Amino acid sequence: MALSGKRILLIISGGIACYKSLDLIRRLRERGASVRPIMTKGAQEFVTPLAVGALAADHVFTDLFSRQDEQDVGHIRLARDCDLVLIAPASADLMAKMANGLADDLASTALLATARPVLAAPAMNPRMWAHPATRRNAARLREDGVRFVGPMAGEMAESHEAGLGRMAEPLDIVAAAETMLEDGEKPLKGRKAIVTSGPTHEPIDPVRYIANRSSGRQGHAIAAALAKLGAEVTLVSGPVAIADPVGVHTVHVERAEEMRDAVLAALPADIAVMVAAVADWRVASAADQKLKKHPGESIPTLALTENPDILKTVGHHTMRPKLVIGFAAETQDVESNARAKLERKGADMIVANDVSPATCIMGGSRNSVRLIRHDGVERWPDLAKEEVAERLAALIAEHFHA
Ligand SMILES: Cc1cc2nc3c(=O)[nH]c(=O)nc-3n(C[C@H](O)[C@H](O)[C@H](O)COP(=O)(O)O)c2cc1C
């Protein structure tokens, strides 16, 4: 399924294993992927562009300085217009070029120009694979984010030698490509996130409480969006009337102090998105029994005390997540208040929104936010809260892959 509709840029470099690339093209296409081939000069000594093109049902790109293909800077287009770059076979020579950032033919230039995931299936003589130069190059490429499938141990086709160096079988390469594409859709896989959402209820007595108009819709949508990108999410939710998001571990709390405890219990984490509208104050000493109205008695006054500042606590914690994002609900001076909050609370980013009643944001289904970072402000258009969540989750994923 992962390959269906995916565009594979297949780079074939020179080695005996090129004959297996013909079968690989068929296997990829059987699974619904389209294959756009680039062949090095070396590869064309082993299999013909005619055979590769016929199996791929596409033009075969061979020449960096092609007048026809480069009319629209074709090497950049090839590098960009694909979901995965697959090198099979990856020769010792091409790996050496890649490891050193060389770009002296179409394959190496496209590889240097691409920002897409790269999977390499090396194939070479065991002595070439074991050579310290190739070891260094492979290690460097791994550091650069290139993934490998194979090589395998076995008999070499051309030399009657045995050892590590055979190209992985086409079906194993297909499986590795599938895994890589699935991972690409889950860029936050392996990351832990804590999200808070909703209001808090601060008791006055057993039946009355201080609350606010937060519905939890924005925080819940962010938790769901992060989970969709593969993050392991703990959602700490105040009392809300909406369902727990699917695929998220939800902890229900009432009061700010409970929320803080639940957030701290969920550390360590990579990401904290503090969306909840936490009450700034609570009643200093909530009554154990319902406060009664007695004729002739004076009206009670509520003495308030400060609640814990959860964002600030997380922002300055010894186990501070790598990325701390706070929300600022303001009714005036939105940007300057949010900027002050960014500094004070030790956050990396503040998502500010104007919650004046006229905006209908608090409790509503849409949101219009400004992203305040240390280096500037980004204004987003009016969006559904789910869209804000998706954008923010994508931005978080980008942060971890930059
Ligand atoms: C018969 C023959 C088989 C070869 N097999 C391989 C091989 O399996 N792997 C490899 O890295 N190089 C192999 N080579 C050497 C490469 O073809 C050579 O290094 C070439 O410059 C690679 O160019 P390319 O990386 O641009 O395709 C072979 C050469 C010959 C003549």
Structural notes for this entry:
Residues 193-402 are annotated as: Phosphopantothenate--cysteine ligase. Residues 188-398 form the DNA/pantothenate metabolism flavoprotein C-terminal domain. It is a single chain. With 402 residues, the protein is an alpha/beta fold. It has 2 domains: 7-185, Rossmann fold (3-Layer(aba) Sandwich), CATH 3.40.50; 192-401, CoaB-like (Rossmann fold, 3-Layer(aba) Sandwich). Helix content is 33%, strand content 23%. It has 13 helices and 21 strands. It has helices at 18-30, 49-56, 74-80, 92-99, 106-113, 126-130, 132-143, 170-185, 217-228, 256-265, 310-315, 334-345, 385-401; strands at 7-12, 34-39, 84-90, 118-122, 147-148, 152-155, 162-166, 192-197, 202-203, 209-210, 232-237, 249-252, 271-274, 281-283, 304-306, 323-330, 349-354, 366-367, 369-373, 376-379, 383-384. It has an 8-stranded mixed sheet, sandwiched between helices. Strands 2-1-3-4-5 form a 5-stranded parallel sheet, with helices on both faces. Strands 6-7 form a two-stranded antiparallel sheet. The longest helix is centred in the C-terminal third of the chain and has 17 residues, at 385-401. The radius of gyration is 29 Å and the shape is elongated. Flavin mononucleotide is lined by residues 13-17, 40-43, 91-94, 123-124, 128, 158. Flavin mononucleotide (FMN) binds next to α4.
